[in-house]
Amino acid sequence: MSPESTGQNEHYLRVFWRRFRTWRGNRPFWAGLFTIVGGLPIAYFPYANMHLGNVTLAMSTTAGAGSLIIGILLITLGLTMWFHHIVRVFAGVAAILLALISIPVANIGGFLVGFLFALLGGALSISWAPGEPTPDAGPAGTAGEKSEVIPGTQASGPEFHSTAAVPQQQPEQYDTTVEADGGRHRAG
User: Fold this and answer.
1) Which residues, including other chains, have CB under 8 Å from residue 175's CB and lie 6 or more apart?
2) How far is Cα 108 from Cα 170, in angstroms, rounded to an integer?
3) What's the whole-model pTM score?
4) How far is Cα 31 from Cα 95, in angstroms, rounded to an integer?
5) Phi/psi at 130 (nearest 5 deg)?
6) Distance (Å, rounded) from C-alpha 88 to C-alpha 84?
7) What is residue 141's predicted lDDT score, i.e. its pLDDT?
8) Nearest-CA neighbor of 35 among 105, 120, 152, 144?
9) Is the four-CA dihedral 55, 61, 67, 69 of positive or negative sign?
10) Res 122 pLDDT > 90
11) Taking residues 106-128, what's their average pLDDT?
12) What SS3 string covers the chain?
């Protein structure tokens, strides 16, 4: 066994961390985390009691059930962003709407802490897009790359380049059936 081989002697924490990084990179992880963290104070503060010495300060309000529902929904949306990232746009919009609703319902959105985290998590979820896998680079360039010659250039010499990154523009196909009726619909 060579000292460069990995696998058998690799520490289990390193393997776990690598798998976690791969899992985290394939979904809107930070959006889900911020949404979950935003849902916690919204659900917690209406039922919390703060002790200042011998004085107990109850922060419970009449909207305790609404706060609990909003907080649990935000936590559920955060978990949805993690484990079912296909619906990330819906989850992000719903998280933003619930964060806005939490301002009048749940102690100013969990004293603005939950509101800001839920709003940030929803925005990150909407803006997240899955990355495209990068093909393994071979000795002659990237795999699957097709070399084309641009008209008016030479195919040999140092000026020859692959045009895989430059999209070729196609002329628009004109539909002549639209004007056959003078631009009117058949029913009109």
Assistant:
1) none
2) 54
3) 0.63
4) 10
5) -65, 140
6) 8
7) 46
8) 120
9) positive
10) yes
11) 92
12) CCCCCCCCCCCHHHHHHHHHHHHHHCCCHHHHHHHHHHHHHHHHHHHCEEEECCEEEECCCCCHHHHHHHHHHHHHHHHHHHHCHHHHHHHHHHHHHHHHHHHHHCHHHHHCHHHHHHHHHHHHHHHCCCCCCCCCEECCEECCCCCCCCCCCCCCCCCCCCCCCCCCCCCCCCCCCCHHHCCCCCCC
Residue 97: both structure tokens together:
């709407």
Q: Which residue has the higher pLDDT, 159 or 132?
A: 132
Relative to beta strand 137-138, strand 141-142 is: antiparallel
Give residue 118's pLDDT band: very low, low, confident or very high (50, 70, 90).
very high
Q: Is the pLDDT of residue 180 over 50?
A: yes
**Tokens read off for 119:** 């709003």
Q: Are 40 and 67 contacting, i.e. CB atoms less than 8 angstroms apart?
A: no
Dig out the tokens for 173 from the structure: 């196909």
- The predicted model gives 20-33 an average pLDDT of 93
Beta carbons of 59 and 107 less than 8 angstroms apart = yes
| Residue of 169 and 178 predicted with greater confidence | 169
Q: Euclidean distance between the first and final Cα of the chain, in Å?
A: 80
